[in-house]
Amino acid sequence: MTDLYDLASKDRLAFWADQAKRLFWHKPFTKTLDWSNPPFAKWFEDGQLNASYNCLDRHVIAGNGDKVALLFEGEPGDTKTYTYSELLSETKKAANALVGLGVQAGDRVAIYMPMIPETIIAILAVARIGAVHSVVFGGFSSESLRSRIDDAQAKLVITADGGYRKGKAHPLKEAVDQALADGNCPSIEHVLVVERTKNEVSFGPKDLWWHEALEAAASEHVAVGFDSEHPLFILYTSGTTGKPKGILHTTGGYLTGASYTHKTVFGLKSETDIYWCTADVGWITGHSYVIYGPLVNGVTQVIYEGTPDSPSFERWWQIIAKYQVSIFYTAPTAIRTFMKIGREIVDGHDLSSLRILGSVGEPINPEAWNWYHQVVGGSRCEIVDTWWQTETGSILISPIPGAFKTKPGSAQRALPGISVGIVDENGVPVERNVAGYLTIDEPWPSMLRGVWGDPTRFKETYWNKFPGKYFAGDGARFDEDGDIWLLGRIDDVIKVSGHRLSTAEIESALVEHHWVAEAAVVGAKDEITEQAVVAFVILRQDEIADAPSETDIAKILRDWVTQKIGAIARPRQIMVVTELPKTRSGKIMRRLLRDVAEGKPVGDVTTLADSSVMSAINDKLHSGASD
Ligand code: WT7
After folding, report:
1. Which of 521, 29, 530, 43 shows the shortest CA–CA distance to 254?
2. Whose C-alpha lies nearest to ligand 1, atom 11?
3. Cα(475)–Cα(491) distance, integer angstroms
4. Which H helix or E strand runs over 540?
5. Candidate from 245, 283, 388, 487 with most ligand 1 atoms within 8 A of CB, to mutate
6. Residues 382-419: tens digit of each pLDDT
7. Cα distance between residue 35 and residue 293, in whole Å
8. Is the CB of 500 under 6 A from ligand 1?
9. Which one, of 124, 95, 123, 97, lies nearest residue 111 by Cα?
């Protein structure tokens, strides 16, 4: 492994070209990187390839068609296995069905699905014909789906009647109907519906059943190559403003990053490993480490429809034992949840097949790291704490198994080929043990290529703070050994159970309610979920004359946020206040509100326009009038 570090530091571009050559190129590239117009990078520009071909056809042609690609476990306990050949045949039919519905290269297709094999088939079919997928997490509300469909001007939605969530059918098709109601989302021509839960759904003129469309479709489909920089997908993520941004990834560079890191970080032995990443495909982790990385690398992987607690907390550990999972990749929140329940649940299962344990999405505290290591990994497995983002497309900072000694709580080193720095406000590198801003100093293949439809926002958000460098939004420090410790977001993005949320987005959802005059949202420290949403609202006196009690108001507003954005954004607590702490220039001082929400003594209030505001909020809080 040290070889990789050496190779990459000797000639970074040659190193990346070598990694890219692990893919199948319909037309080989001759140029590695064009960085003449930063921040708009072009990787492997004159090459052509097909993402779906790299995930499927290639393995079948190499004689590995009978290898199992997916071991699917449904929440109710149903199972299904797909070999690479089977996955390919289904994908070909789905690709033909999409073409039959008028989807062409470059068109956007929204995917709003549960974690079932058809979701992966749908994604690979979209990519196969050069269309652009925009997966919207099934837990997002119909309104969130609508705004994402509109922003991307999607032509088609692929959904399911429902997905199983804690024993019940979560009605996805119904949410699509709501998103499209009243003539909304006019760009959508058809809705393809996978039958999963068999709950009742209403069918309109745009709706078609997936199984019928696939049955009617031809079974042969030849994948053609697309330009390396052809858009592969858009994935919406929260930023510091109210409007989510559509992060754009393109084909050649993204696939290079996803497959290289999946192989390297997990020390992959593709012949024997059974891999399981618990992420939903609605997030970037699902894109890179359920779909593209593992499938390009031809592994056998488990996918599970449900959540870790259903039907019981035993489920995950049963699955690991049943399939002899050797590589397991999950989020610290899940680890902390199991830690709280106690090790008996885990100890009751034979987890001796595990070899590598991954962590992603938020900092993993040393206690959780040690528990993961000892209880889940039997003190035998390597832990890889992987830092990356929707924007980076693939893991950038992580230990490599066996390369050096791991350290609980530190993501440690930039991967070979990646160059990171930690700088102060002026862009000057900080000393060791001093906190600063994490930057990425050289372009990398799987970097985002833009914010859909908004090149200005792309430049301003990521490239303006430290000219020439990508600014990630995270704080970090190097320790005395030069290992990196991530310190969390420095902006108004918060992380709840590894899900990324924007305080501004939740605030705008709140003020859309006619009772709310003003809202401030903070991420308060939470033992299990890392951060939790806490909202402070000022009510409109004229609107709430005959409104219910404050407790009811808080409950109604929490439901409102769920309806507007989705359950993941539901505030843990809403406090009704009469004023918010503001600076003289009118900026809300969230730092002070965070102190209140965390039950800490309120810090320095000298910059407040009215310093009595905080004592009023504190008094109110201690009188118990909150949700
Ligand atoms: C933000 C990106 C990475 C895929 C899933 C989340 C935080 C992510 C770690 C880690 C500390 C981490 C950062 C980052 N984050 N991984 N290993 N240690 N923080 O992707 O939703 O785009 O969120 O997640 O704050 O900026 P995302």
Report:
1. 43
2. 363
3. 9
4. none
5. 388
6. 999 999 999 999 999 999 999 989 999 999 999 999 99
7. 25
8. yes
9. 123
